[in-house]
Queue: 2 jobs
Job 1
Amino acid sequence: MTLQMFLEHLYMVILAVIFAIGIGLPLGILSYLFPGARKAILWVVDVLQTIPSLALLGIIMVFIGAGKITVITGLVLYSLLPIVRNTNLGLTEVDPAIKEAARGMGMSKFYQLIRVELPLAFPVIFTGIRIATVNSIGSAVFAAFVGGGGLGSIIYRGIRIQNIRLIASGTLSLMLMAVVFDLVMGMIEKRLYRRSSAA
Amino acid sequence: MTAFLEVYGKMLVNSILTHLFYVFVSVSIGFCLGLALGILLTRVPKYSQVILPVISLFQTIPGIVFIGTLFLYIGMVPLTVIIALSIYAMFPVLKNTYVGILNVEPQYTEAARGLGMSNSQVLVQVELPLAMPTIIAGLRMSTVYTVSWAVLAAMIGLGGLGDFIYRGISTNNNALIIVGAVPAAVLAVVLGLLIDRLQKKAVPRGLRKGGAVK
């Protein structure tokens, strides 16, 4: 039973992060290409993350009902901030000399973005994805309240029937998941940074 | 809408006040504890290498677990919520205090020592002011988190805006959810903005504009 909750939790988090990358990456690129829109985009994603989790899930639930989709939508909205901000930051921090060299070689703006800027910004973007993933693992606990299942429901049940072992098993699995993701993605991140500084 | 306000208006005001009460008390306690422990940790960098990872590990425990577990031991009293939220509010402040002080460039502390300042003078007059923007950033995180976790007070029947959200979710009453969720969201955003203001003021005058403040 615990395994099933564990997988359910993982499923919601991974799906949410994938969607968040799909939405956040273009938003980050947009905010880089159009400095005018930068402030507005960053402000919106910042406000989204400030909204209390249960409140956000509640509001989403009003529109699309209870269930996993509600949870995933909420997690996507929460994950946008680190991904959008880091995409923007990574692209901004690419060495201007390299950008100029790319233009000097006759690359179009689009080509320059795809072939030069994005690959160089990727380590920073990946940091954003790692933060989004670890945060989502924590926030997905709230799924229990809106009928999404996951490890949160084990913890919640433990609290309701006053069973400390149930709470502990849910919490430890959760911590394990967060720590493993943090470590593994951190290792990949280090390798990415090393490769980009060697190049 | 007016009929709705007549029924729930008073309760809503009460809930907002309860919510604010939880947030202010816990953030105040958490801030003092975090600041003190953060400063302490910078004095013993050797142990900090061990203590800090443990702290970030603790931070992965969701607030619901803190509240739930304490609820089993202490019971259904506001103290449960306050303790849980204070612990939670402490972590970001602690971490940022530590990082903020460590990131003060040695040239400043050395200059201060050269002027004959004692250790405590260096701390109060040089390190803390320079670290203040980072510490306030920690305070912002604590506050926003606490507003969020205070919603869970309702889970153990202790009021706050979570009450509406809970009741709304369990009775499928969308109006109730909105009445609880929107003020909670507004509260978090407004408090966040206020602290952003505070943070701008906290930057020492000589360092405004330029200077990496995160």
Note: The CA atoms of residues 123 and 192 of chain A lie 6 Å apart.
Job 2
Amino acid sequence: MMPRSLVEAQNLTRVFDVSKPWLSRLIEREPKAYLKAVTNVSFSVGRRETVALVGESGSGKSTVARMTVGLLSPTAGTVSIDGIDMWAPASASERQKLRRRLQMIFQDPFASLNPRWRVDRIVADPIKAFGLAKDGAEIRHRVGELLTLVGLDPADGGKYPHEFSGGQRQRICIARALSSNPEFLVCDEPTSALDVSVQAQILNLMRDLQDRLGLSYLFISHNLAVVRHMAARIGVMYLGRIVEMAPSAELFAAPRHPYTRLLLDALPDLGMTGRPRRPIEGEIPNPIAPPPGCAFHPRCPWAFEPCCLDVPALIDSGASGRAAACHAVEAGRI
Amino acid sequence: MSEPVLSVRDLRVAFPTRRRTLIAVDGVSFDIAAGEVLGVVGESGAGKSLTGAAIIGLLEPPGRIVGGEVRLGGQRIDDLAPEEMRKVRGKRIGMVFQDPLTSLNPLYRVGDQIVETIRTHARITEGKARERAITLLQEAGIQGARARIDSYPHEFSGGMRQRVVLALALCAEPDLLIADEPTTALDVSIQAQIIQLLKRLCRERGTAVMLITHDMGVIAETADRVAVMYAGRIAEIGPVRDVVQHPHHPYTKGLMGAIPTLGPQGERLVQIPGAMPRLDAIPKGCAFHPRCAYAFDRCRAERPEPMPAGPSMAACWLVAAGAAANAAPSAAAGSARARR
């Protein structure tokens, strides 16, 4: 059996109340409205492993990321880091200890850095917050070290974020995330706002850092090629649920769930193999009123009766750690 | 081939500032034939959107065209009076922008917007224009067009809105369609739908298309020819298959290698060091030379013009030196792909 994973998420569910104000509801005689952003999502991330969640907008992947780092409390389910339940820690100091071990990198490097702080203050903030250094000199030394680590000059610490390009800012965000010596990083679309050549620099940097520091990543992205490049295991999300979870190579070689298949078919083909590109019909349904049964059935060419009735469970298939939530796969129709 | 629909020669766009004049587009030349899709690809700041805006006469002041010429079906359009240009725009050149919500007026029903555009450019009755609008929406893949024509833009989803914008851009049967990042705001599954639609509609009508995007995948999928822009100039232009599979310019090579693919995992991505230069600090000689692994003395002193390289044109002195075609690609692949 594998050693215990570093991060374990069990049946995460998050419901948002999207009701109109009380008076409007009273006048228009409408009930309360709820949006199920995430339903029963479970995954684990091993040490030095990269696990990716991929999905289109509205699939709930960012909500999962926020629950995993503790920015958002789950409606149901648990997240545990190294066996400690994040939402039921014994004391505040224990929670503080837990927080040091996980950090987050956000999508937009223009919005996630305080424009009025110099870079060294930004990077030093977690060090101060967690009391990881004895004095100012040690903090300065550590900040210089971190900036060098992410490929910047220690002298850059005296500048403000606006003096940097998008790629350099994302490097600053990474330096800040690393300053508390975390073991686990949640990266929510870390390269979506960057140009391809800069994206390549950041992805390479993230992999180098993983090798050097033994980090674990939860990598959130809408870009299948980026996910393929980064992750060992991939979970495909659709409308708040993981519909397929598989090792990266196997997912791309032999996708099982119809949504994964169609998503791969819809990718632009850079190799120009002349492979026919089959777009998925229709659009993602409204998450406030999702279709009954499997949420994908209105767009699915393989849908049959049970798909409209029951939500398929994520069922493990064999030894390779693959799982798919699909009635047709279960019944052997695909 | 007969006369191209669009012919751009040595186009230069400048932004005068207090200190100096910044050249944002510098000597760009290309043609687009009827029914052809030219992809214009580049990273942010390459000048691809400005080129599109200059062609259609929608440069934001103080930006203006300071040199070269733009011909549409043989007629010069870059020196037309604003009033004349307005008649060309919409009638002979259609436009699709990135964000479909900003190109539709939120206060008018989509049908009214299409009818108004049709009647601006053609003398037909309102009833006929409305019938045409419904046909157009149907062709653009909007189901139940007759029922949805009186909806407001906010009642459509992102993909549906982009279909409406496409119908709007094509309603006056333009000769040229300029699509600036038409699928960037959309999800992958919707992106594929819109690209197929764009291709189909333009093929049926023989419309020339200038497709501006940063996504090489979209270009490979859609375009017949592609122009790669860097720092306001065309680095390489040629048939899409040649540029994607056998790039000649070191920038194109780096760009292609930097894109993660669905191929075998584990390799490092090719990394182009540094970033695109700012407009006020474009290096002398070839603008790419500080980032280029093959740069030699001539690159630092003299600016290369596009020159034939196989079926493509590449603005690179290596091509002139004859070294790029055979020796460089293998060397590039070897050194850049090696793990650390």
Note: The first strand of chain B starts at residue 6 and ends at 16.
